[in-house]
Amino acid sequence: MQSANMLLRKIVRSSVLPFAAQHGMKKDLFPLSRTLSLSLCLKQDKSREPSEKLDLDEWKKVMKSGLQEEVSETVSEPKELSGLAAARETLEMWRLAGRAVPENISEEELKTFMECPSKSAKKKYLKYLHLKELHKKNDKRKMREKRERRLEDQASKTDETKKNSFLCMWSSTMDKAYNWRAAQSMIFGQPLVFDMSYEKEMSLREVTNTVRQIVLSESCNRRSADPFHIHFCNFKDDSLYHREFVKQYREAWGRLLVTVTDQCYTELFPKDKLIYLTADSPKVMKTFDHDKIYIVGSMVDKSIKTGVSLARAKRLGLETAALPLEKYLLWSTGAKNLTLDQMMHILLTLKDTADWKKALEFVPKRKYCDFVNKPVKELKKTLDLINTLKLGKGREEGQKQFAKSYPKKYKLK
């Protein structure tokens, strides 16, 4: 039987295949399965023709490039893993040596630790994380003690019915009222823009501080009588800003009553209505304009980089303004930069009262001596006292600085 099958195959190969190659396939000559098998055989025979030759040099190049890509992919991951492992070993050694090192550290914090340029910078960063961890533990301990005291007070009190003429206002009711105001501001409120395009200008720690200040600003705005309609412009998904906001708000981030967009504010509003608030502006803000749209740069710079927001406003061709701090305050020391939540308090107070003295009360008192509207003799006494306590021999320089700031109105004798 096997010999008969072998003989049949030889006959088909010697007679049928040359006929099919010359005259093509016939429908009635073979069944469908046979035609498929013959077509496969023909394709195999055609692929073996000597006219088509394989280029060995090209094949070697392709194989080598593929191997190099696979090797680079497999080597890059162990390098990162080895760097993280080495950083963890360094942390363990420093912890055993008695240095200020946090007990728990995330991968992002480890990468930031590895990116520190010097050993002293790494020590400072670890000390910051250690103190942050201690503060969290202390807060948790205080909350636990407070909860225990509250439970003890509730257990010690009797079940006497309390009578009070005042209505009980729950915090959830107040939150609903605040959210209703914020929802109304998104339709009828004056826009206030936070420029979120300064991520490259800051470190991870500075971005974290910026987001915390914006969270405080949003909370202050939501609790005000006439809140702003807050816009986060130039906001990119999966950016450092976005990650920190999700950390701060958690599930509430999706329910936040603000406008978040990746568009620039020049695309959303007309340029003639935009005013960029920056401390470096040569133009001083005189009054609060309810028809204008104010822009605040979302940046916290520990090194105080001057002119960054002013340069951005000039590139976009926008009007700029600075707060009149020297006009109303006798400035003492330090830069005239304020935090974002302080700016929010000042703008809300100006919007409600139009009173600069009330608004500038939110400026930290360590930065100025007093308000300018007091008598000159009192200002002179205050300035002399500060010079004797802080400057010592630099009393004359302080007086010169006072005369330079207020040459027309006041004279020191």
Question: What can be said about this structure in brief?
Answer:
It contains 15 helices and 8 strands. With 413 residues, it is an alpha/beta fold.
What does this structure look like?
There is one protein chain. This protein is of the alpha/beta class and 413 residues long. The protein folds into four domains: 2-40, no CATH class; 98-144, no CATH class; 174-370, Alpha/beta knot, CATH 3.40.1280; 374-413, no CATH class. Helices cover 57% and strands 8% of the residues. The chain is built from 15 helices and eight strands. The protein has helices at 2-23, 32-47, 56-96, 107-115, 119-156, 171-188, 204-222, 240-249, 265-268, 308-316, 325-328, 340-353, 356-359, 376-391, 395-405; strands spanning 191-195, 229-233, 259-260, 274-277, 293-297, 319-321, 329-331, 368-371. The protein has a six-stranded parallel β-sheet. Strand 1, helix 7 and strand 2 form a beta-alpha-beta unit. Helix 7 (204-222) packs across helix 8 (240-249), helix 7 (204-222) packs parallel to helix 12 (340-353) and helix 14 packs antiparallel against helix 15 (395-405). The longest helix has 41 residues, at 56-96. The protein starts with a helix and ends in an 8-residue tail after the last helix. Residues 25-52, 70-77 and 409-413 have low confidence and may be disordered. This is tRNA methyltransferase 10 homolog C. It comes from Mohoua ochrocephala. Residues 178-370 form the SAM-dependent MTase TRM10-type domain. Its EC number is 2.1.1.218, 2.1.1.221. GO terms for molecular function: tRNA (adenine(9)-N1)-methyltransferase activity; tRNA (guanosine(9)-N1)-methyltransferase activity; tRNA binding.
